[in-house]
Amino acid sequence: MIRLYISEPTPAFSAGLILPLNTDQGRYLTSVMRKGAGDVVSIFNGRDGEWTAEISEAGKRLVTLKLIEQTRTQPTGQGPVLAVALIKRGPLEYIIEKATELGASRIQLLTTRRTQSDHVKLERLKIIAQEAAEQTERLDVPEIVAPIKLEAFLAAPGVEVIVFGDEDSTHEGDARQTQPLLEVLSTLTNRRAAILIGPEGGFDDHERQTLRGMENVYPVNLGPRILRADTAAISALTLYQAALGDWK
Fold first, then answer.
1. Per-residue pLDDT reduced to its tens digit, 185-221
2. Cα(120)–Cα(141) distance, rounded to whole angstroms?
């Protein structure tokens, strides 16, 4: 069944409610998917669970839905926060898509001293997240937050614990001083954690020492190989969901 995310402000979903679709979604239903009055779709808004809805009007200028019944309630838990330094457009878009699939609740974009780009098309990233949520049957869409400096992220409230992949710990050998990510995550039960991923080339020495000096920041080892930023983000989110999230 076709799933649509309703991003516009609406009254709380209830049986019989009539919702007008925005132009793009209306055109998608009628012109692309060839749906018409009487056809049924699934909708969600990130607050009121998932509902089946019938197309009540399918005009060229206006497409409306009539809500029928709720099929799933909205979950109460929150997924991990992913904080990621800006990288090239293709890998960054891939991170947004896969982070959505892996249940990230918020994706904070960052600039660091080695960030390769300071420009990002935020609206495009939001669309990528929305489409990924629609396809994977999520009942919400992660918040994509405009880039801020690493220092501002570290100073802001909102997460209890930050874990970051310390690429300089990769060559510690058998007597590793930095714990593997999975071991650290297993100790963070009931504490909301943010996963911090640096830019290609990693954090510089000053940033690394700042991170290692903070009480609520845990440097972690992501294994014996240097990982690309997109691989590191996906790997870390996978381990988070296995240790603390909705894969348990």
1. 888 877 778 999 999 888 999 999 999 999 999 999 8
2. 19
DSSP element (H, E) containing 158? none
Residue 159 lies in a domain: yes
Residue 101 shares a structural domain with residue 193: yes
Mean pLDDT of 9-34: 96
Half-sphere exposure of 153 (CA within 13 A, CB side): 29
Of 142, 110, 111, 105, which Cα lies nearest the Cα of 127?
142
Q: Look at residue 175 in the predicted model and tell me its pLDDT.
A: 47
Amino acid symbol at 7:
S
- Relative to beta strand 161-165, strand 217-220 is parallel
Crossing angle for the helix pair 229-243 and 89-101, to the nearest 10 degrees: 10
Order of strands, sheet of 143-149, starting from the edge strand that comes earlier in the sequence: 143-149, 106-111, 81-85, 193-197, 161-165, 217-220
pTM of the model: 0.90
CATH classification at residue 158: 3.40.1280.10
DSSP state of 242: H
Distance of CA 158 to the CA centre of its chain: 16
Residue 213 gets the label, from left (phi > 0), alpha (psi -120 to 50) or beta, of: alpha
Q: Which amino acid is at 165?
A: G
Domain assignment present for residue 248? The answer is: no
In this prediction, residue 201 carries a pLDDT of 85
Domain hosting 169: range is 81-243
Banded pLDDT at 16 (limits 50, 70, 90): very high
